[in-house]
Amino acid sequence: MADIVSIPGYYKDSFLHSTKGCLYNQNVLAETASLIKQADSNVILVSHGGPLQSGVNGIDLNSDQKHVGDPNLTKFITDNKINYGIFANIHEAGGYATDFAGNEKLAENQFYQQMFLNAGPADSVRWNMNDKTESTGMAAIMTITKDGAKYITNKISKPTAAK
């Protein structure tokens, strides 16, 4: 069993690319923390952007190999003892999960007590990935049981051409 808790918006206005975009701030994080206290199962945190990581396999590594996750979200995850998260904004780092620091890349279909997944780009725009592959769309499934969490990803190998 799991409770899904989401944080709306993004943390950094320079990445919004729209004057009408949604930014979250400390107030939103505080309100979300009060929701987490009501959860009666494992919490899966879902957010557009991920936490700031420091490891070589970070799901927040952009194409310049710089960590661009949110440091406030990192603190939020620690403070609220969240062990599972799903994120997708850093497309080029998508398609795998790591431990909290981003040091260990976690194998698919194995259970872990802590997992932070970058589900990857769901759109069909071609992305050059950090692992030197190309994405034309991805999907992921995270499963939570009494044994922990596991994930699988599906990388679209040949997209259907637009007409």
Overview of this structure, please?
- This protein is α/β, with parallel strands linked by helices.
- Helices cover 12% and strands 28% of the residues.
- It contains 2 helices and 10 strands; from the N terminus they run E-H-E-H-E-E-E-E-E-E-E-E.
- It has helices at 26-36, 71-79, and strands at residues 2-7, 42-47, 84-87, 96-98, 105-106, 115-118, 127-128, 134-135, 138-145, 148-155.
- The strands form 3 sheets. A 6-stranded mixed sheet has the order 1-2-3-6-4-5, with helices on one face. Strands 7-8 form a two-stranded antiparallel ribbon.
- A hairpin with a 6-residue loop joins strand 4 and strand 5.
- It starts with a strand and ends in an 8-residue tail after the last strand.
